[in-house]
Description:
The structure is a single chain. With 254 residues, this protein is an all-alpha fold. It is built from twelve helices and no strands. The N and C termini lie far apart (80 Å). The chain has a domain at 98-223. Helix 2 (29-38) packs antiparallel against helix 3 (40-56) and helix 3 (40-56) packs parallel to helix 5 (82-92). The chain crosses the membrane at residues 31-54, 85-107. Residues 43-192 form the CCAAT-binding factor domain.
Amino acid sequence: QLPTGLYKKVLVILHDSVLPYMNEPTLMMDFLTVAYGIGGAISLLALNGLFILIHQHNLEYPDFYKKLYNLLDPSIYHVKYRARFFHLTDLFLSSSHLPAYLVAAFIKRLSRLALTAPPEALLMIIPFICNLFRRHPACRLLVHRPGGPADMSEDPYVMDEEEPSESRALESSLWEIQSLQNHYHPDVAKAAAVLNQSLSEMEDDISGLLELSAYELFDKEVKKKAVDVPLEFEQVRGLFGKKNDIFAEHFSLD
């Protein structure tokens, strides 16, 4: 048992400062799987080490995607390690052999959580979801299903279900992204409107959006050049506004 602070420090450096120098990196399997099951930030940090063991050392983890799915909660868009988590999640969901129900469950859960996410996170997660649709065309029925639920209570998707296969995500529709098309931030509304059109074959590069901050968004708005808007500077007089017009003698605008 390690203190929480020490757990985090070890997991932050484990994947690049420890595992590459071990003769048998597989010895860390138990440590990382236990850390992955703890939850919260510790589970997020354990993903780096697990990624190396799964891809390079043939670690089999039957419940891996179930636990990854359950890591998605409202705090995921606010945590310090958000960029690292979504970078790895993107890699884990890149395989074309994943079942449609699993990817649809991730899309629905990310979309539902996006309803309360800050703009800087939304500008990253919307292209992220679009990339999942490009990789897994079978999930596009979430966008193109006619007659979606009239309100949230009619949505067949079960948000509290821990098992992705039981969440009924493929029976639902992506009304959450449609709601974001009316977002107060114009860039978010524009990004969400992309799903109204047919998606291009080329995936969006989200690497530059993973660490986007609220400060950068604000700074971008402040540095925008103001567009000169023509204004009426001469006061209108009379009915037709002409100088020395006979109508100006008999009609006035209050």
